[in-house]
Each structure stands twice: as structure tokens, then as C-alpha cells.
Amino acid sequence: MASGEWERGFSKARRDGKVEDKDNNIKLTYIWKPPDTGLLKINFDGEVFKEKMMVGVGVVVRDCTGRFVCGGSKKFRNYQSPKIAKILATRESVRVAENLANFHLIFEGDAMDIVISLLLDEQDGSDCENLIEEVKMMLRRIGSPKVTWVGREGNMIAHKLARYAKSISDVIFCSNQAPSFLEEQLKSSYEKWQGLP
Question: Do you know which CDD domains this protein is assigned to (predicted)?
Fold first, then answer.
């Protein structure tokens, strides 16, 4: 599929709230949806803190019940580009996935341009091309898992973790027990998917 077709599809998703393209296994939505049974979903996001000359990344892994499996925050100094922040978040999510080798994985982020770049065979052509190609290679090494886009509303847990990076010295990672500041948001995102108030 040509780059222009992808962009038109994503533009339609923004207008309509969701889009489905069965030929290319694309389904876009604005709320977080749990993966099917037996799969894990890895959400990622990046945030720029210009005043501190750094970016923060957040990664969260959840299962089919919405349960927090693991996640964390990490900061990278001397960066100020939003696109670099999102790509670094994607790369960190793949690094987390390398420790989840026995699971089938779905990667999900809210940066449409990054998702498009990862899905297309052609090179990105941007100043971030080398980093994007590195992430593509890492994804191939773990079996070329599915990569999807979700609106910001559906990526709030990863977004909060990315923002949390501003308050840590380097990196924080949690397994099985979510940080307390995420508990309400985790519950809320799962309830929204179920259609509960």
C-alpha cells in the first residue's frame, strides 16, 4: 500500500473516530482496547521537556483483562524533538518486549507518523530515519509483531508514564504492580472499553 493511501486512512480515522481496513489488518480507535486472550499489548509514548533539555518515555504492558503486567519511565537528556521522543519510546517498548519472548505482542502508540513509518517497507526519509530503521530491525528480530495506532485518549497510561520521567533520576520499571498514580487510570481505561460509566 502506498504512503498516500495510509495517510488518507489515518485522516479518515481522525474524522470518524475509527477506521477499519480488513485488507491490511488495520483497525484504529480512540479508546484503549485489551488484546485478545493470550496476547499482550504494549503501549508507548514520548514527551518533551524543553526547559530541561530532555525527553521522557513511557511504556506499559497489559494483558487481555487490562491487568498491568509491567511498565516504566525513562528519561533521555539532550533531546528536544517530539518525533525523537516518540521513536525512543517505541524503541524502549521493543526492548521491554525482548524480555517477553513467550508472548504474542501488539505494539500501540498515538504517533501516527511513527506507526506509518514502522508499517511501510520504504524508508522514512526524515532526519530520524536511522532510528526508525533500527526499531524496524528490532521488531523483525522479535517476529514482526502487529503495530497499531490509537488516539491519545487510548494511550493515557503510557503518556502519564512518559510525563513521570520528568520527576525521576534516570529510569524506573515495575512488574506486576502498577505505580499507585496509575491505578485509577488503568481501571478507567478498562471500564471505558467495557462501556461502563
Answer: RNase_H_like (cd06222)
Domains of the chain, CATH where assigned: 3-194 (3.30.420.10)
* Radius of gyration, alpha carbons of the chain: 16
Cα distances (Å, whole numbers) of residue 43 to 3, 9, 189: 24, 21, 13
Helix (H, G, I), strand (E, B) or coil at 181: helix
Q: How far apart are CA 60 and CA 26, in angstroms?
A: 21
- Global pTM value: 0.82
Dihedrals phi, psi of 18, to nearest 5 degrees? -165, 160
pLDDT (mean) for 12-25: 49
- From residue 159, alpha-carbon distances to 15, 22, 72, 83, 144 in Å are 22, 28, 11, 14, 24
Cell reading at 122: 520504504
Residue 167's CB is within 10 A of a number of other CB atoms, namely 10
Please give the grid coordinates belonging to residue 30.
Answer: 480512540
In this prediction, residues 162-181 reach a mean pLDDT of 93
Task: Outline where the chain has alpha helix (H).
Answer: 3-16, 82-97, 112-119, 129-141, 156-164, 183-194
Return the number of other C-beta atoms located less than 10 Å from residue 10's C-beta: 17
pLDDT at 30 (0 to 100):
75
Residue type, 45: D
Residue 56 contacts residue 62 (beta carbons within 8 Å): no
How many whole angstroms separate alpha carbon 76 and alpha carbon 158? Answer: 16
